[in-house]
Amino acid sequence: MSALLERRGISDRALDLADKVEAFVRDVVAPFEQDPRQGAHGPSEELVADLRDRARAAGLMTPHIPGGTGHLTQRETAAVLIRSGLSPLGPVALNTAAPDEGNMFLLGKVASDDLKDRFLKPLVSGDARSAFFMTEPDGGAGSDPSMMQTTCKPDGNHWVINGRKTYITGAVGAKVGIVMAKSDDGACMFLVDLPHPAIKTVRILDTIDNSMPGGHAEIEIDNLRLPADQMLGAAGEGFRYAQVRLAPARLSHCMRWLGACVRAQEIATDYANRRHAFGKPLIEHEGVGFMLAQNRIDLKQAELMTLWCADVLDSGAYGTTESSMTKVAVSEALMRVADNCVQVMGGQGVTADTIVEKVFREIRAFRIYDGPTEVHKWSLAGKIARDWKKTQS
Question: Which of UniProt's keywords are assigned here (predicted)?
């Protein structure tokens, strides 16, 4: 794994931490990949608690926020999160998984000290999970957040929120919620303790992916009444805060799933070298060897694209364009890698005997969440047109 990771610009401390994370994921977490405490909607709370206890014992809980306060740089975070992704259970165990990782980043940037103490600390310690309530059913916010239908109205020193949300990852079992709603001033965000009687789970969706605890839920919010001091930041700034969260969160997805595809490549490579057909190992057949060779190219390009975007964010730039480009390039490259791994392994590749088929399913979902490829390309095309117009004035 180390040979695949660009080490320049990453501190010795972060590299040492990344090596410890890799050893932990390979030696401690990976043996749980066949654990029966996993279901159609993700690992059970019992399994999550078991894995996190082991991460704490190893001193590796939430490793990208060492000491529970200062966040690693994005480039250093890449070194750690790529390694955490070597098993689909790695991010769950180490508390580097979505949506918690992105929610912790947002609260660290925007929340008041009181809100950090109440809501962020239990997330960083791994004692609580969280959910981000933004996406809505048909007619509401999705790739276009301006279509938001969930409303929030002031009532004295409180706000009252009503609406419906869908594809809410980890809502079931979460203790912290970030709810996005529309006021007369614009979008707002609120922090809420979960479970809450005004936030009802309509159903848990059956989806192609199942690596995240709690699955993805459809939610009804019925007269949720919250004190004004539980608003995150200022009224009307919700869309801006969403971008503060989403740009690095897209990149974190790239990091974690890059690690998963590195592992899938390892498994497919081992299979291709051990399995024989037509008088020689599969790896010696060009049809197989070339797929694994292309995978190596795609993995390296995905890594370099991820680190480039990390550098942009570390420079203090907003990073929306760069994160869109990276999300498209990496998700599409990793889809090719995962598909090739399945193909190389043939029948074995579509069984649950290894994590390869799971990685394939998870990467397929990755091409959609945090913005489908086509939405990012549409946004990038719009920027290209705007940039051209500037040159004509």
Answer: FAD, Flavoprotein, Oxidoreductase
The domain covering 130-233 belongs, at the CATH homologous superfamily level, to Butyryl-CoA Dehydrogenase, subunit A, domain 2 (2.40.110.10)
Domain 2-97 has what CATH class?
Answer: mainly alpha
DSSP string, 304-346: HHHHHHHHHHHTT---HHHHHHHHHHHHHHHHHHHHHHHHHHG
Using DSSP bridges, classify how beta strands 158-169 and 216-227 pair: parallel, antiparallel or unpaired.
Answer: antiparallel
- In order, the DSSP letters of 40-75 are TTEE-HHHHHHHHHHHHHTT-SSTTSGGGSSPPPHH
Quote the pTM value: 0.95
Say if domain 239-384 classifies as CATH 1.20.1440.60: no
Cα separation, 247 vs 320, whole angstroms? 6
pLDDT tens digits, 216-237: 999 999 999 999 999 999 999 9
pLDDT in tens, 338-373: 999 999 999 999 999 999 999 999 999 999 999 999
